[in-house]
Structure formats: structure tokens, C-alpha cells
Specification:
By secondary structure, this protein is of the alpha+beta class. The chain has helices at residues 9-24, 60-67, 69-78, 92-97, 104-114, 137-147, 193-207, 218-227, 264-276, 315-318, 322-340; strands at residues 28-30, 37-41, 47-51, 87-90, 118-122, 132-134, 153-158, 163-170, 173-181, 184-186, 240-242, 254-257, 281-288, 303-309. The strands form four sheets. It has a five-stranded antiparallel beta sheet. Strands 4-7-5-6 form a four-stranded antiparallel beta sheet. It has a three-stranded antiparallel beta sheet with strand order 1-2-3, with helices on one face. α1 packs across α11. The longest helix is centred in the C-terminal third of the chain and has 19 residues, at 322-340. The two termini are 33 Å apart.
């Protein structure tokens, strides 16, 4: 358990729920030492417990499926939604335990078959942790080495391009939508890329954003090498450089809010996905070929479901501006009311 700090995103959720409870005359009790967990007294006089962004809005079975990317892809595809072609592989020890030959060497054979670059990712990790775009044998095996240290199951997928969006749904309503951008630095003509990263981290701290940039991330080293750079490279003034291939806000990415401009057809798509997966509260990650603000055409390949998150954290999104902070407060107000009235 980490030391209590006001920079902890879980603390901000608990405190916000307690504040909203007072405003809405709903009893919200928060464990006072760590402010990590709490409970809400519902309208029917029973309690609903929460831990950070994990609420009792979703059923246990549906939540467990959403955590598992491979199973999520299976059921979404079975239901007619567009997903990435995904193949599942296992660490050497786990493959041996379950008597499967779908282990690391087979994964590399598959990667060569579909053609590099390929995406390799842990099956159950969240927040973009160890999502790797690999371009050759060396980077593939290095990625798998890191991944199998935290997850015995990993996925290999073709790399797809487009606009990366997170859409958060509660029951039949889209609470927020934003485009996600990768960790990027912009040159000033005098600072190295490493120095620009340090400056960006200080900027996050000043803004109250608790994102920690891992300057030693091996994925950054690989990305820079492909661009012909190192961390000692001085970028020309005004030149931007994306340092990671994944676009998660938790790894230093930025966002463009589209909550008020998302097209109704994409709203309905997100709502349908959540319903189909038996969830009530969920974040859907979509790769869209044009823009989520334009109509979705069912007969054209305009979107791909990347993954689902049954406990979507929005603390990084909240820190991206005053409008987003206000939106997050109203999101959690709706979450609180939904829990309060839940039978």
C-alpha cells in the first residue's frame, strides 16, 4: 500500500464522491486513513461498496470478461462488432502447465505470418502498460520478455491506424468522449529529448496531474531509434516527436475532448457495446478511421473496438482542463445517483 498523498487519483475519486454525497443528500462513507475505499447508503437502505473507480454497477462475470482482452474480443466479434484480429499466446511456464504449444516461439511465427509491425500486449493489464509496437525479431522478443514478467497470457495483433478514442458510458448515456494522443514533446532548439521529458513531468506536477513519465521506458528507446534519434537528440524549435506508440493518458498522453461533438451514431454504438457485454458502466476504446464527430456507417469499416475497461479512470482526463474537470464531477454525480437508486 502506498503512502497517502493528495496526488493519488484514488483519493480524488473518494473525496469527490463524499463531496457529491453531501450535495445530493446521499450518505457516502470513506475509510479515513487511506481514503481508498468507501460505501454508499442506497435508497433501499442497503450499502454499495467501492474501491477507487471500481463500483458495484457491473456484474462480477461481465467485469471479469472485460478485464480479459482475449475473451472480450471473442464475445464482441461473436456479437457482430468489429474487433482487431487477435491471437492468444502463453509464457513458457504457463504453456507447459496447460499443455499448450501456443508459447513465445509460436507467437513469433504468427507475428512473421501477419507481418511486422505487430502489437504485443498483456492480456489483463490496463492503462497502456507494456503495450508494444514491435518491428522486428529483436524488439518482439524484448517486448514479450517484459510482458511475461507481469502476465502469463499475451496477445499478438496487427497494427492498425486511425484516431484513438475513449468513450465512457453509464447505462444508456455517454458521459464523456475524448481523443487520445501519445506522449509527445516539442523541441525548443536547445533542449535534449530527455530534458524535454523532464520539463513535461514538471509541467504535469504544476498542473496537478499525477501522471508519472517513465523516462527509461524501453519502448521510448525503440521508438526514438526508429526515428534516428536518441534521448540526447536536440529537436529543432517547433518540431514535435511522439515518444510512445500507445496513446494512454496514464503514460503521458494528451486528450482532445469530443463529449459535446461525438456523433449520435457513435453514441449508440458505444451504448450497444456496453449492453451486449452485460455492463452498465464502461469505457470503450475505439480506433476510428475518420472522426467520431462524423456519422458511423454500419456497412463501412470505419471503427475497430480496441478494448473495454469496466472501471474507467478519468483522473488524467479531469486534469486536462477546467471544462473536463467540471465534466468529470458531473460524471461521478451520475454514477453516485445510479448507485443510490440501484435495486
Amino acid at each position: 500500500m502506498s503512502q497517502k498523498t493528495t496526488q493519488n487519483p484514488v483519493v480524488s475519486i473518494a473525496r469527490l464522491l463524499k463531496t457529491l454525497g453531501k450535495e445530493e443528500h446521499i450518505v457516502v462513507e470513506v475509510e479515513p486513513t487511506w481514503e481508498h475505499v468507501g460505501r454508499i447508503l442506497k435508497k433501499n437502505n442497503t450499502y454499495s461498496y467501492f474501491r477507487g473507480a471500481h463500483f458495484d454497477l457491473n456484474g462480477l462475470g461481465s467485469t471479469e470478461i472485460a478485464v480479459d482482452k482475449a475473451y472480450t474480443h471473442y464475445f464482441l466479434k461473436k456479437s457482430g462488432f468489429r474487433t482487431i484480429d487477435t491471437k492468444t499466446f502463453f509464457s513458457q511456464s504457463f504453456g507447459k502447465k496447460i499443455h499448450s504449444t501456443n508459447t513465445i516461439r509460436s507467437a513469433y511465427t504468427h507475428a512473421k505470418k501477419i507481418g511486422f509491425p505487430v502489437v504485443v500486449k498483456p492480456n489483463t493489464a490496463s492503462q497502456g502498460r507494456l503495450v508494444c509496437v514491435t518491428h522486428n525479431q529483436r524488439t518482439f522478443f524484448e517486448a514479450v520478455k517484459h510482458i511475461t514478467q507481469i502476465d502469463r497470457v499475451f496477445l499478438v495483433q496487427p497494427l492498425i491506424s486511425g484516431h484513438d478514442y475513449r468513450v465512457v458510458v453509464l447505462n444508456n448515456e455517454v458521459l464523456s468522449a475524448y481523443e487520445r494522443l501519445p506522449l509527445t514533446v516539442t523541441g525548443d532548439g536547445t533542449s535534449t529529448i530527455h530534458q524535454l521529458l523532464v520539463k513535461k513531468q514538471k509541467q504535469f506536477i504544476t498542473e496537478g496531474r499525477d501522471t508519472h513519465i517513465n523516462a527509461d521506458d524501453f519502448r521510448t528507446t525503440h521508438k526514438l531509434a526508429r526515428l534516428g534519434y536518441t534521448k540526447k537528440t536536440i529537436l529543432p524549435a517547433g518540431e514535435s516527436c511522439a515518444l510512445l506508440d500507445n496513446r494512454n493518458l496514464s503514460t503521458g498522453g494528451d486528450s482532445i475532448d469530443v463529449t459535446t461533438t461525438i456523433d449520435p451514431t457513435y453514441k449508440q454504438l458505444a451504448i450497444d457495446i456496453v449492453k451486449t457485454m452485460g455492463l452498465s458502466y464502461c469505457g470503450i476504446d475505439l480506433m476510428v478511421q475518420h472522426s467520431i464527430t462524423q456519422p458511423f456507417h454500419p456497412k463501412t469499416n470505419t471503427y475497430t473496438v480496441i478494448e473495454l475497461n469496466a472501471a474507467p479512470g478519468v483522473d488524467h482526463y479531469a486534469k486536462s482542463g477546467p471544462a473536463q474537470k467540471k465534466n468529470v464531477k458531473e460524471m461521478y454525480r451520475k454514477v453516485l445517483k445510479a448507485i443510490y437508486t440501484q435495486e
